[in-house]
Amino acid sequence: MLIFVLKRLASTIPVVLIAITACFFILRLAPGGPFDQERALPPEVLANLRAYYHLDDSLIVQYFRYLGRLAQLDLGPSFVTKDFTVARQIAIGLPYTLILGGSAFLLAIVGGIVAGVYGALYHNRSADWMIGAIAMTGLVVPNFLVAPILQLVFGVRLGWLPVGGWGDGSPRFLLLPVIVLALPHIARISRLMRGSLIETMNSNFIKTATAKGIGRRRVVLNHALRPALTPVVSYLGPAAGYLLTGSIVVEQIFGIPGIGRYFVNAALNRDYGMVLGTVIFYMALIVLLNLLVDLAYAWLDPKVRQR
Amino acid sequence: MGFSFKTFTGALALSTLLALGSAHAKELVMYNGGDVTSLDPHKLSGDWEDRVEGDIFEGLFTEDAKAKPIPGVAESYETSEDGLTWTFKLRDDAKWSDGEPVTAEDFVFAFKRLMDPKTAAQYAYLQYPIKNAEAINTGKIDDLDQLGVKAVDDKTLEITLEQPVPYYPSLLTHYTAYPVPKHLIDKVGDEWVQIANIVTDGPYKPVEWVPGSHVLTAKNEHWHGGTEKLDIDGVRFLSMEDVSAGFRRYQAGEIDLMTDYPKDQFKFIQENLPGQGHFAPFAGLYYYVFNTSKPPFDDAKVREALSLAVNREVIGPKVLGSGEPAAYGWVPPGMNNYPEEGARFDWAEEPYPQRLEKAKALLQEAGYGPDKPLNVTLSYNTNDNHKRVAVAVAAMWKPLGVNVSLENTEVKVHYANLRQGAFEVARAGWLADFNDPVNFLDLLKSGIEMNYGQWSNQDYNQLLDEAAKTQDLDQRAGMLEKAEKIALDADAALPIYFYLSENIVSPKIEGFEDNVFDKHRTRWLSMTE
Amino acid sequence: MTLYVGKREALEDAFIGRDDEMPRGKPRSVTRDAMRRLRANKAAMAALFVFAFIVLAAIFGPYLIPYDYETPDWNAFTAPPSIESGHYFGTDQNGRDLLARTLYGTRVSLLVALIATAVSVFVGVLYGAVSGFAGGRIDAAMMRFVDVMYALPYILFVILLMVMFGRNVFLLFAAIGLLEWLTMARIVRGQTLSLKEKEFVEAARAAGVSSFPIILRHIVPNLVGPVVIYASLTIPEIVITESFLSYLGFGVQEPLTSLGTLISEGTDAIGAADWLLFFPGGVLVTMLLALAFIGDGLRDAFDPKDR
């Protein structure tokens, strides 16, 4: 098992390297530089700045210098937030992103499974239709539209919840952003769960169990749920990637200092080190999550375990 | 992968600390726009940083509630006959927040550090009036000691200038002229600016900084003015880019002061939040640059035609909605050492239809007409306001038979293009750094980086150079006004409107005075619970 | 490395595992069967009509209304919807007719989605078919490359591409199509693996037809089912990606517009000019809902065991 995990982790290194290389060069080839701004700098000052950050060397030299530093676990300076290195900023932002993303992930799984099971049990009845309709809406309404509306309703009009900010990190502050982030995934998971559970319930071994006179509730919980979970689990890998997309928007609208909004800002600011730092971190997160998902998958499906 | 376990646990500890953070008695929460990039006054560039920095540092001069320069760390000063040597007597009770005295040596050290090319300070050029400053900053002189700043004794500072500068006190309120704590930097180097180390000499000091979230300040008990003079205990400067989300937080009472607002909500604010929207003239110009090095924009007739056709009366009140004043001149009204109005376009008072006819005739003279339409690419950096103005201007040019293609790029690309002259007509803007018209007139001087359009006129340059040497303020103002007129007559660029400062201020806050520099230091504000 | 194992396998299972159920002989009957089943699906048919209406409106609508999408009405800035003025959807902040802009925006959004989907289908089908048909080490290498691509944080690359192609949205979406073909390629490869054992392929090969013509003439036409389903899932995804990028400030160049751009402008005006959000938002949500139902219907039609 450990060897499997280690092998998997080792095999991600080339992927990360490819991503770093691609990001590095795409970003450098993009027009505009970190010091282009509303107030043009005198050429001498610009030269000072570029020398200060070693941007005056050739691209290849800079690339290998970056890799060299990376090997020493140094992500370099940020051109924008100059008092913090990239690593410090990520270290500060990461807990917020992890708490936000983690909560949304959990909510999506629990909410999605519960809604899906409910929908399957009341197959083709009004409750099922209701859940289906809500799930569909959750899927198609973009989160940057849901977020302001929830803020307006629950924050401004009703005054029940804070509109934004992290505050003291209590659930009150987390509720809206987590819901916004989780919504499309609750929807997708509930649809997957429903479909797969209906199919499982129609399979022979469940029919046998029911015929034996085991209660419906017990059949579902003890027999049908586990095999029906397979497609849900396989969705969780990509879901991690989608959560990252969502967190960019959610962190921005709710003013949460996670690393999601750094990425966009850093790309726009041509803060090269920061972009690469976030890419590396997001890749690490996604790889880790996928590893967990695959482990869970192996637990659910013996066929995979034997491979 | 790339950060140590220590920093990670540090961050966790920090976030738990935040969770436990005690509520301030009187904490002002401010929507402050972008992320503060540094607390080091030599490494800043934005007005949102100035709001923080101006609260925690104090220069020789500082601003009053109306942003007029008043003595800060300087107790008194003398100017030599020729206006070149300024001698400042520093306050005896000026102290850093660790209790160390603020000395003349701190200022000398700060100015040298600012000009040192190794510091790579972006705004060093603002203090180029100091003797030898430019030569040192651009590497022509290696010896930092040649800089015209001297500590006569602990509390006496002498600054020598290249040329007399009538607006020098205003320039000294700028963050590039703040002192930095030499005793601390000698000890810890660049780390001095870390929140655990930093000491400041302003009425407030920073106590917490979470990048991407906020900077929090608290009273500086060593400040010479005394903490009892400060009503507000500290400010939470929020970094937020989404102004609409910020405004919702304001509506819910989570934010006390917005330094920007969503344009679409103007009417809503006027109707539902009476007295809270502060929209006041601001020393800033919104303009379009013509690339005069490229035909057809080297032709003054084309430039004039395009300028004539812009109906500026519509832009502020209708397109933007908040009523920005139309710009028929180059220098915003309300600048020091200058007549209130300054020069204006000759045609400023003409009715629009007449101007439109004139514009058509001019274009025809320049050789453009129905069979040879003028094609213009209008570039702007991605932003809602810029988009609206560009769309409106494009529609105003259309009746002239001009085909406009709009091109928006992100801000970095936009300014890279401007710098390289890769544009035809492009949006630009300028906010005053100090209270004097040369701030704006310099934008059109030859050889200045900000003169993106490369417009060049020897008479104009000469007038500015002469004015720089003139000590008599009235005479100087006359020269500058003449220069402004030259630029307007030649349509060097296309001024559109003068900025408004836009603040939404909670009724809890008192002492908020609108001013042309949009500077509202917290020491002048008070807040009711 | 095997990332997204689950998602892939679920999709592959759906298409490859079906092998036995597939009627032998001319595979076109599969399509005909599917169409019959699709016509019987009321929800999907209704969605199809709605979608067709939106598409037709987007294509022909602009010619039928009194205002164009770029000329300001100097007398009506941010004017609410009104019958008398002829601005049935009201006007935007520049005095332009919102109905015209919404129609145009729909057109652009659809076009952009079409471009990206077409690119992803083209690349995915070709890549998957070649990989599956070639088999052996070529296949292994080609699929290994897909694995690598899967691990890249997709949205981060989209943002980087946006930084590069900021000026040209159509180019940008062609580039996005180049990132979206991975799942397509996996599905097509799986299908091809089973197809190439079929008699008609064997026959063609025995007749001496070389590999590439076989792929084009015999394999690709038999991939219609999965390709259509997957494409129907890709279109709404691209529409959402487009609106997401618009929200981040990277919409199409003015005076053109897209649904995403209109909505992100509209969210700023909530409470002050609700119609700016309501109409484009309504069209987007309706369109995505319709597409979701169509996608579901197609999947059910081609893969009847799912329900």
TrEMBL record, chain A:
<feature type="transmembrane region" description="Helical">
    <location>
        <begin position="274"/>
        <end position="300"/>
    </location>
</feature>
<keyword id="KW-0812">Transmembrane</keyword>
<feature type="transmembrane region" description="Helical">
    <location>
        <begin position="98"/>
        <end position="122"/>
    </location>
</feature>
<dbReference type="InterPro" id="IPR035906">
    <property type="entry name" value="MetI-like_sf"/>
</dbReference>
<dbReference type="GO" id="GO:0055085">
    <property type="term" value="P:transmembrane transport"/>
</dbReference>
<comment type="similarity">
    <text>Belongs to the binding-protein-dependent transport system permease family.</text>
</comment>
<keyword id="KW-1003">Cell membrane</keyword>
<feature type="transmembrane region" description="Helical">
    <location>
        <begin position="12"/>
        <end position="30"/>
    </location>
</feature>
<feature type="domain" description="ABC transmembrane type-1">
    <location>
        <begin position="94"/>
        <end position="293"/>
    </location>
</feature>
<dbReference type="InterPro" id="IPR000515">
    <property type="entry name" value="MetI-like"/>
</dbReference>
<keyword id="KW-0472">Membrane</keyword>
<dbReference type="GO" id="GO:0005886">
    <property type="term" value="C:plasma membrane"/>
</dbReference>
<keyword id="KW-0813">Transport</keyword>
<dbReference type="Pfam" id="PF00528">
    <property type="entry name" value="BPD_transp_1"/>
</dbReference>
<feature type="transmembrane region" description="Helical">
    <location>
        <begin position="129"/>
        <end position="150"/>
    </location>
</feature>
Automatic annotation (TrEMBL), chain B:
<dbReference type="InterPro" id="IPR000914">
    <property type="entry name" value="SBP_5_dom"/>
</dbReference>
<dbReference type="GO" id="GO:1904680">
    <property type="term" value="F:peptide transmembrane transporter activity"/>
</dbReference>
<dbReference type="InterPro" id="IPR039424">
    <property type="entry name" value="SBP_5"/>
</dbReference>
<feature type="domain" description="Solute-binding protein family 5">
    <location>
        <begin position="68"/>
        <end position="447"/>
    </location>
</feature>
<feature type="signal peptide">
    <location>
        <begin position="1"/>
        <end position="25"/>
    </location>
</feature>
<dbReference type="Pfam" id="PF00496">
    <property type="entry name" value="SBP_bac_5"/>
</dbReference>
<keyword id="KW-0813">Transport</keyword>
<dbReference type="InterPro" id="IPR030678">
    <property type="entry name" value="Peptide/Ni-bd"/>
</dbReference>
<protein>
    <submittedName>
        <fullName>Peptide ABC transporter substrate-binding protein</fullName>
    </submittedName>
</protein>
<comment type="similarity">
    <text>Belongs to the bacterial solute-binding protein 5 family.</text>
</comment>
<dbReference type="InterPro" id="IPR023765">
    <property type="entry name" value="SBP_5_CS"/>
</dbReference>
<keyword id="KW-0732">Signal</keyword>
<dbReference type="GO" id="GO:0015833">
    <property type="term" value="P:peptide transport"/>
</dbReference>
<dbReference type="GO" id="GO:0030288">
    <property type="term" value="C:outer membrane-bounded periplasmic space"/>
</dbReference>
<dbReference type="GO" id="GO:0043190">
    <property type="term" value="C:ATP-binding cassette (ABC) transporter complex"/>
</dbReference>
From TrEMBL, chain C:
<dbReference type="Pfam" id="PF12911">
    <property type="entry name" value="OppC_N"/>
</dbReference>
<dbReference type="Pfam" id="PF00528">
    <property type="entry name" value="BPD_transp_1"/>
</dbReference>
<keyword id="KW-0571">Peptide transport</keyword>
<dbReference type="InterPro" id="IPR050366">
    <property type="entry name" value="BP-dependent_transpt_permease"/>
</dbReference>
<dbReference type="GO" id="GO:0005886">
    <property type="term" value="C:plasma membrane"/>
</dbReference>
<dbReference type="GO" id="GO:0015833">
    <property type="term" value="P:peptide transport"/>
</dbReference>
<keyword id="KW-0813">Transport</keyword>
<keyword id="KW-1003">Cell membrane</keyword>
<dbReference type="InterPro" id="IPR000515">
    <property type="entry name" value="MetI-like"/>
</dbReference>
<keyword id="KW-1133">Transmembrane helix</keyword>
<keyword id="KW-0472">Membrane</keyword>
<feature type="transmembrane region" description="Helical">
    <location>
        <begin position="108"/>
        <end position="130"/>
    </location>
</feature>
<dbReference type="GO" id="GO:0015031">
    <property type="term" value="P:protein transport"/>
</dbReference>
<feature type="domain" description="ABC transmembrane type-1">
    <location>
        <begin position="106"/>
        <end position="295"/>
    </location>
</feature>
<keyword id="KW-0653">Protein transport</keyword>
